[in-house]
Write a structure and sequence with these properties.
mainly alpha, 77% helix
Length: 155
Amino acid sequence: MKLTTAVLTAGAALSLTTAVVGAVRLRQEARHQTDRNEAVVARNQLDWLAQISTDAELAKLWVPEDMGVEEYMQLLKANQLICTLSLRDRLGFVRDGHLPFFAAMVMSSDVCRRYWHRFGGLRAQEAEGDERAERFTRALDHAARNFPQARPAAA
């Protein structure tokens, strides 16, 4: 092989490697930006839930007609907990296989089950088309449906 051919081949290989590394870096940066955006949007939602679930006057503006303000505020606190778990899941902080455990823990709370009974269908509609959100919603729905209605007495 001639020296010029070897130099051109090495240059092409270096250029290709640089392009691949650059593309991987851009993809990684886009993923990180998506994670940051999700965190910001979730923070806004959690801040809103914190306000409306603690301020009865504000809650009165949003309460469904067939529900009392106190009940609505309690359900919003449950939603806040579920949204926090959802964010952890979306950002990859819930390890594979642990979502059913966390969902069962959340649904061990009566107020979370009441929230899910009332608004779970809405959350399922919101999740449509988002594979991760659909998986999260299915896990919570499964936990809510399978929560024991009558707990055995302690021995």
